[in-house]
Amino acid sequence: MLAATSSLTRPAYRHAGAFPVLAPRLAPSTWQNPNVRPDGPSEPRPAATVIAARQGADGVEVLMLKRGSEHRFLPGYLAFPGGAVEPQDGGLASRWFGSPAEAGRACAVRELVEEAGLALTGRGLVEIGGDDRGLSAVHSAPPLADALREISHWVAPEEVPVRFDARFFAVDAPPGLDPHPDGAEAEQAWWARPVDVLRDFAEGRCELYWPTSKTMEALARCATVQDVLALHVPQVEPG
User: Fold this and answer.
1) Which end of the chain is less crowded, N or C, counting CB atoms within 10 A of the terminal residue's CB?
2) Nearest one of 113, 127, 129, 104 to 81, comparing CA atoms
3) How far apart are CA 187 and CA 10, in angstroms?
4) How far from 25 is each of 18, 91, 121, CA to CA, in Å?
């Protein structure tokens, strides 16, 4: 499963209109999860998630991470790069985008560097060398704010032990980039088709948190990267 793209056969589909939709997992999806360790404060913490999408030979592929086994939040789960907005992100937002109000976008850029070794710059998404987790590549050529398209916004309900207020951003990735996971927050990183991730989830070979699984369903309906950048994924609650 953790190759650059899965070589397993395509899953069986049922169809809704023009788009294939995977049959739901039998186990109920929920915000509640024993792998979420209580965070203390009940107020949701600002956070950002970044979905890097590229055009593959068999459709859209997105950058996936497997969280580290010692990660405080959902250890071992599959996720997109991202994390909590840190105090430094306001300053980074002012430097890169001209306003501290863009701290969420700055957080997304920073997390992509730290967790996957990829930097979003004014020249597009690029690899950074070796163990370099610095932001020099971004500082030298900051991206435009429009390079990160906000496609979703999730706020964890009050009963969730770790609450976040997360904005999901999508970025266009060129072919040929190899992610370099940091080995701690992200044990592994690879490119995968959303339909393959959903199949593995449905068959019990991986774990996805509720917002990730619903976003992945929307990504699976995208034929091109432009479709991904144009998405609007509403927050929905488990039924």
Assistant:
1) C
2) 113
3) 26
4) 22, 42, 38
Q: What is the pLDDT of residue 37?
A: 53
Please, what is the Cα angle at 73 between 67 and 79, to 5 degrees?
A: 40
CATH 3.10.450.50 applies to domain 14-20+38-229: no
Q: Which amino acid is at 87?
A: P
Q: Are 155 and 106 in contact (CB under 8 A)?
A: no
| pTM score, whole prediction | 0.82
Confidence of residue 40 (pLDDT cuts 50, 70, 90): low
Place of tokens 């398209």: 149
pLDDT at 211 exceeding the cut of 80: yes
Residue 135, pLDDT > 90, answer: yes
Torsion sign (Cα): 42, 46, 47, 48:
positive
Q: Please tell me the distance from the alpha carbon of residue 23 to that of residue 74, in angstroms, as a whole number.
A: 24
Q: Buried b / exposed e across 196-231, counting CB within 10 Å, b at 16+?
A: bbbbbbbeeebbbbbbbbbbbbbbbbbeebeebbeb
Span between the terminal Cα atoms of the chain, in Å: 29
C-beta of residue 173 within 8 angstroms of C-beta of residue 53 = yes
